[in-house]
Amino acid sequence: MKKNILLFTFFLSLNLLLQEEALAVQSGAKFITRFSFRQFYGGVIIVKALLDDYPDSLNFIMDTGSGGISLDSATCSRLNISCVPSDTTVNGIGGTRKVCFAFNQTLRFPGLNVNKLDFHINDYSLLTSVYGEKIDGVIGYSFLSRYIIKVDFDSLQIDVYSPGKITYPYGGSLLRPYLSTIPIQSLRVSDARRVKSRFYFDTGAGMCFLMSERFKKDSNVLSVYHNPVTTEAQGIGGHITMQLTTIKQIQIGRFKFKSVPTYIYDDENNVTEYPYSGGLIGNDLLYRFNFILNYPADEIYILPNSHFLDPFDYAYTGMSIYYEDGQIIVDDIIPNSPATLAGIKDGDILLGVDDNKSNNVQQYRNILESPKEKIKLFINRNGQMLELLIKPKVIS
User: Fold this and answer.
1) 229: enclosing H helix or E strand
2) Region 50-55: what's the mean pLDDT?
3) Which of 155, 247, 163, 170 is nearest to 207 (CA)?
4) For residues 275 and 177, which has the higher predicted lDDT (pLDDT)?
5) What is the CA radius of gyration of the chain?
6) Binning pLDDT at 50, 70 and 90, where does residue 262 land?
7) Sheet containing strand 157-161, strands side by side
8) Are 182 and 25 in contact (CB under 8 A)?
9) For the chain, does the N or the C end have fewer beta carbons within 10 angstroms?
10) Half-sphere exposure of residue 361, counting CA atoms within 13 Å on the CB side?
């Protein structure tokens, strides 16, 4: 315990050094602006921005896993933004689809206007129901490639610099990913075997780690003693069934994480581009670093922050919850899961979790991340009020 406290203090000191030195800017790179962000469930980064001359700010996910920039189709309809059909397809976990475009748009942050952006249009209604707040779009490579971006999870602030020569602060690791539109980083993954392979660096993924089924089989990295559970995840194509387990160790740069929750995905459309990539590392792990995205130099710098020792979520309920029309709905019940054993059914309306009756889907998810504890659920089922107990299982 004493060792962990010393490590925690050490990493806090490193973070203070980062705050003091900022980017240690040298010739070329110049500070442009700073704005705040919010952190949603799974570590996902939400920034607010204005689009063209529309007066209302919009919610965007800042996503290194996006090869462009996009708007929600409902947002386009509400703002009367015209869309041009195209033969371009967008790939993502959950499916592949053709998209149309809104060309030559301007995105406005405090102190920064980003011009000549071509947004592809997608349906983000599922993401809106997952987070309980309107998701108006996703900001990816089209924005990130133009600047140096510093993301600080301690202060919840983003600093934007012009491209140029910089000196990174002490105490972190410099990553040199392959970067065409989405950064692909080499990681060392250890379980039954120790394997080095490439994975997407994906801040838009609200999970720790994902590997494709083909990578798992070909690498033989997982021990036969694992007992994965079946779960549901969400992607641009809808709901996807995956397996969930833990992996003994993941190393990114010089930093190691043990017993990392890991999704195994039967990637029928080869979205993860195996064998070029084995899967992705997501922001439920990456938020433990403050990082600097230097796309112009093909570099990412990661530095442990005050969340570095945050525990991982090992709880498994076997159900999903979504915010729809002002209510939180239970769905995707997995057979023989803790949710099934508790008597929960698809379509139940979740009124409260333990003492929390906020009707906030993200707060409810956080409470349900408590393994080995019985959690009280207040349910409305066809007008009948029920009080049920669920005991989340610990994944292994």
Assistant:
1) strand 229-235
2) 93
3) 247
4) 177
5) 21
6) very high
7) 31-36, 157-161, 148-152, 289-294, 299-304, 173-175
8) no
9) N
10) 24
DSSP string, 100-168: -EEEEEEEEETTEEEEEEEEEEE--HHHHHHHTS---EEE-HHHHTTSEEEEETTTTEEEEE-SSBB-P
Query: Do 102 and 82 meet the contact criterion of CB atoms below 8 Å apart?
Result: yes
CA distance 349 to 367: 17
102: Cα separation from own chain's centroid: 25
Q: What pLDDT, in 10s, does the model give residues 338-359?
A: 999 999 999 999 999 999 999 9
What domains are defined for the chain? 2-161 (2.40.70.10), 176-285 (2.40.70.10), 315-394 (2.30.42.10)
Residue 126's Cβ-count burial label (10 Å; 0-12, 13-18, 19+) is middle
DSSP per-residue codes, 51-79: ETT-SS-EEEEE-TT-SSEEEEHHHHHHH
Phi-psi region of 80 (alpha: psi -120 to 50; beta: other; left: phi over 0): left
Q: The tokens of 62 are what?
A: 């800042």
Assigned token pair, 169? 């602060």
